[in-house]
């Protein structure tokens, strides 16, 4: 029977792996400067400096692109909570501590760049954005919560497995947001951010893979728990459900993308359904992942039906509005 590792023992066992992965990350990283991706010439003073405060007519992004970019920014804004979470779980000593600080430094530029872009291009209400930032950071974040808000047991395994999926989901969300913006500047910026997120995902994914080799059953328990209770870190953003619907219907991040582009690629990389080193409860939980994936497939199907109904309603509303405008125009002439 394989013994379970405490977090302290697991930190020690994985230290050599983390050291190699940190070295690999430093050789693969692509440093970039947030200021290089901001169209500064479009900027102008706001009221406090004798300029004009924001007006909704100044925003050029579509509702989907604006909602997604603001949601992504507010998610990035909660970096203090994320740093605290990974520092508490991974520690600040040795290679683990080196990674925690490096990851935090790289993540910090994402929020800087997104905020500069939105404020300079006037693609969102900067006053509302600041109010939301304060609220979001005040609420904090913990990945150790399920959909009902109840805490489930957290461990180092939980932490690294969660961020393996979360970093990939964030990469996909940023990349699709860039495409939705229909602006080459925003697209370039979000490609840069996505590149960072991809390297972060690879680091956590490979740490988790090493953990699976060290103790498959213990890792499987965490994997099952994480996927059963998974939600994105932006769930604490005010009015999250409405924004998530706009983002999903707009094709930036929806249940199908979550399953096909996030969950399944990671599970395949870890060879979860091909491995033969699970036993007892670990084997049972691995088999139960099949049920979970079937549930996610069912969610995808239901979402597509609901999405089509919503789009049809929106088309009818748009047609009625266009007809009304035509009648008004005809009567005026």
TrEMBL record:
GO terms for molecular function: stearoyl-[ACP] desaturase activity. PANTHER family: ACYL- ACYL-CARRIER-PROTEIN DESATURASE-RELATED (PTHR31155), STEAROYL-[ACYL-CARRIER-PROTEIN] 9-DESATURASE 7, CHLOROPLASTIC (PTHR31155:SF9). Its EC number is 1.14.19.11, 1.14.19.2, 1.14.19.26. Residues 286-313 form a coiled coil. The lineage of its organism: Bacteria, Bacillati, Actinomycetota, Actinomycetes, Mycobacteriales. The keyword Lipid biosynthesis applies. Homodimer. Belongs to the fatty acid desaturase type 2 family. Transmembrane segments: none annotated. Keywords: Coiled coil, Fatty acid biosynthesis, Fatty acid metabolism, Iron, Lipid biosynthesis, Lipid metabolism, Metal-binding, Oxidoreductase. It comes from the Bacteria. Its cofactor is Fe(2+). It comes from Mycolicibacterium frederiksbergense. This is Acyl-[acyl-carrier-protein] desaturase.
